[in-house]
Amino acid sequence: MSEGIKYVTDSSFEEDVMNSTKPVLLDFWAEWCGPCKMIAPILEEVAKDYGDKIQIAKINVDENQAVPAKFGIRGIPTLILFKNGEVTAQKVGALAKSQLTAFIDSHL
Questions:
Q1: Catalytic pick among 25, 33, 67, 73
Q2: Which of 4, 25, 51, 90 could form a disulfide with 47 if both were Cys (CB 3.0 to 4.6 A apart)?
Q3: Pick the catalytic residue: 25, 36, 47, 73?
Q4: pLDDT value, residue 26
Q5: Confidence band, pLDDT 50/70/90 cuts, at residue 97
């Protein structure tokens, strides 16, 4: 577990994501998902690089089903950027670090 990444559950979602004072990039993932494992170290690097500008968070779709259902998550990894409790942007699939930082920068 990385200190820069927050692990969110169905019960903590409201507080951790919707009520966050800074933008939150939420990664919908599962243990068995290959592309999710590929993007995990990239998310950790981005969490370090961006520091306090953004909160990187992860939610396990196998253990938490209410939040993924609420946002219609069909494929993982899905990354959703929340700002002030609103969905600002969404990407499906693993991204290279340059793609991920470009995605974040264009929406911050």
A1: 33
A2: 4
A3: 36
A4: 98
A5: very high
Would you call 39 a catalytic residue per the annotation? no
Domains (ranges, CATH) in the chain?
Answer: 5-106 (3.40.30.10)
Q: At what angle do helices 34-50 and 97-105 cross, to 10 degrees?
A: 50
DSSP state of 88: E
What are the pLDDT digits (tens) for 36-60?
A: 999 999 999 999 999 999 999 999 9
Q: What is the mean pLDDT of residues 65-75?
A: 97
* Type of residue found at 60: N
Averaged pLDDT, 93-102: 97
Contact 45, 77 (CB under 8 A): no
Q: In residues, how long is the chain?
A: 108
Using DSSP bridges, classify how beta strands 24-29 and 55-60 pair: parallel, antiparallel or unpaired. Answer: parallel
Active-site residue 76, yes or no? no
pLDDT at position 78, please? Answer: 98
Helix (H) or strand (E) holding 83: strand 78-83
Rounded-to-integer distance, Cα 4 and Cα 51, Å: 8
